[in-house]
Design the sequence.
């Protein structure tokens, strides 16, 4: 089954919770107009890098999205700029090029362009374009990894003063396989995948969005916050194809909790190896920041407990959800009420013999207007 | 009367109303039934997460049915002086006068409207806005969100 569509009104608490979660995710993902803007900017940059005057034109550059945009797991950040990651891959081997030369060449390229010179910043592994409207595009220059081959690439790393291995395409393929969505076909200058409406997303993608949002609410700007790739990898590892988002979250959080317990018994931290490059541990920073690992453990344990309570609740869990996901919850409640109001006006509602509002039932709700004294 | 230009069918009897009520809402029972006046009581739960509301409907043929929630008692959200879309005596107002007459079955009009009313009442209690529209849109509960979110972009 390629898509899971929410049921509108239902007798069953789990489906009602899933519907609520779908709408929360719809509210917290990158809004469509921002997505289109990113798409346009990325297209413009791609053409610029390919033009005859570009120092990269000879290397048949290929630019493609990576990270949340490619995975369909974007989440808005309260008041913070949205950063979107792209890879600029050159048809060249890493052994042929000096990593720092490549990074600086890309930086100079944008600095020398009138449109981009004031937006351009040099970061550790990428060149960042800071648009005035709180939008950052991070461009990672990359060459092919001679040693590992395949989709593996090498990216310059200023801290290492050398190459750092990466495999974003491999990661995307792995994630999509975990989602059981057909693997994206990567052409030259892969277009951004059209942004999926929430109802077309797999429960894994929604679970990643919910985890990232819960992380943002819990940690804010704290340096202790677990990084997105760790959450995404753990979620995709423990997702077992559930069609229900709430059930997927139960499985994912239970799986992470068991992993932590298992590591605790061995006196170690959990490892989060990169599925597309098993030598790489995404959780390495926990070695230098044990307090961040402790914060992660505490947070997962708390979230696992809260989620089990929410998923079994026979009462409206809106307050508990608002504690986890913040202001998107009342926004989602309003959206659900408005959808019900729309269905009511169209005469699509019914009620069961117990009075439960459903999409189809023996007793149809005729359109009516509430009245009363002022 | 048959020769009159206006067509005035006789209102449905309480026994017909009661018959359809028993069919569609079997948990409702008539607590009193005297010819042209009938009182039903029964439970309604608009969503699986909702309270179960013990509801009373008093119908005097062919007048507007009086609807009251017996338990749990309706609550009034802080900052409001009454529940939206209720009359001064606390009965619910689920329709405009022209939308209902004695020829319509209460079980297929009034009762479903009560369910939808209860749904919007619960949303109003949580969020402070009445999203079910209605005839007093200038009242504060019809205004936009009171708790304005931080990140509305």
Sequence:
């Amino acid at each position: 089954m390629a898509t899971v569509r929410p049921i509108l009104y239902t007798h069953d608490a789990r489906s009602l919770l899933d519907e609520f979660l779908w709408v929360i995710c719809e509210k917290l993902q990158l809004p469509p107009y921002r997505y289109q803007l990113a798409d346009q900017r990325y297209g413009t940059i791609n053409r610029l890098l390919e033009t005859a005057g570009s120092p990269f034109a000879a290397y048949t550059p290929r630019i493609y999205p990576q990270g949340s945009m490619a995975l369909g797991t974007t989440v808005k950040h309260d008041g913070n700029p949205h950063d979107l990651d792209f890879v600029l891959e050159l048809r060249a081997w890493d052994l042929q090029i000096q990593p720092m030369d490549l990074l600086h060449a890309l930086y100079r390229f944008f600095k020398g362009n009138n449109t981009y010179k004031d937006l351009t910043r040099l970061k550790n592994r990428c060149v960042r374009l800071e648009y005035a409207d709180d939008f950052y595009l991070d461009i990672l220059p990359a060459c092919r990894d001679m040693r590992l081959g395949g989709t593996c690439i090498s990216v310059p790393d200023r801290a290492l003063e050398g190459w750092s291995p990466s495999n974003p395409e491999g990661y995307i393929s792995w994630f999509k396989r975990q989602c059981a969505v057909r693997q994206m076909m990567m052409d030259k200058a892969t277009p951004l995948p059209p942004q999926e409406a929430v109802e077309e997303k797999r429960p894994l993608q929604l679970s990643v969005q919910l985890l990232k949002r819960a992380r943002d609410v819990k940690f804010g700007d704290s340096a202790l916050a677990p990084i997105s790739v760790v959450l995404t990898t753990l979620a995709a590892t423990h997702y077992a194809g559930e069609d229900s988002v709430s059930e997927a979250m139960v499985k994912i959080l239970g799986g992470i909790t068991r992993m932590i317990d298992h590591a605790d018994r061995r006196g170690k931290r959990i490892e989060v190896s990169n599925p597309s490059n098993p030598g790489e541990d995404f959780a390495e920073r926990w070695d230098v920041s044990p307090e961040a690992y402790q914060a992660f453990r505490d947070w997962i344990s708390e979230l696992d407990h809260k989620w089990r309570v929410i998923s079994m609740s026979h009462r409206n869990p809106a307050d508990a959800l608002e504690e986890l996901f913040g202001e998107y919850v009342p926004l989602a409640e309003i959206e659900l009420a408005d959808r019900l109001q729309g269905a009511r006006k169209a005469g699509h509602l019914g009620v069961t013999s117990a009075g439960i509002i459903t999409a189809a039932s023996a007793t149809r709700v005729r359109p009516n207007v509430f009245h009363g004294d002022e | 009367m048959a020769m009159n230009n206006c067509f005035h069918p006789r209102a449905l009897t309480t026994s017909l109303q009661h018959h359809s009520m028993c069919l569609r809402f079997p948990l409702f029972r008539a607590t009193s039934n005297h010819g042209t006046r009938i009182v039903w009581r029964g439970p309604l739960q608009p969503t699986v997460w909702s309270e179960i509301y013990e509801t009373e409907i008093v119908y005097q043929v062919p007048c507007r049915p009086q609807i009251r929630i017996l338990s749990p008692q309706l609550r009034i959200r802080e900052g409001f002086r009454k529940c939206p879309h209720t009359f001064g005596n606390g009965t619910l107002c689920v329709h405009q006068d022209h939308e209902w007459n004695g020829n319509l079955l209460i079980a297929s009009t009034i009762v479903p409207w009560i369910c939808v009313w209860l749904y919007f009442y619960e949303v109003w209690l949580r969020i402070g806005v009445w999203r079910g529209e209605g005839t007093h849109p200038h009242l504060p509960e019809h205004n936009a969100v009171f708790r304005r979110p931080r990140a509305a972009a």
User: Anything to note?
Assistant: Chain B touches chain A through 58 residues (CB under 8 Å). Residues 144-153 of chain B have pLDDT under 50 and may be disordered. The first strand of chain B starts at residue 29 and ends at 34. The radius of gyration of chain B is 18 Å.
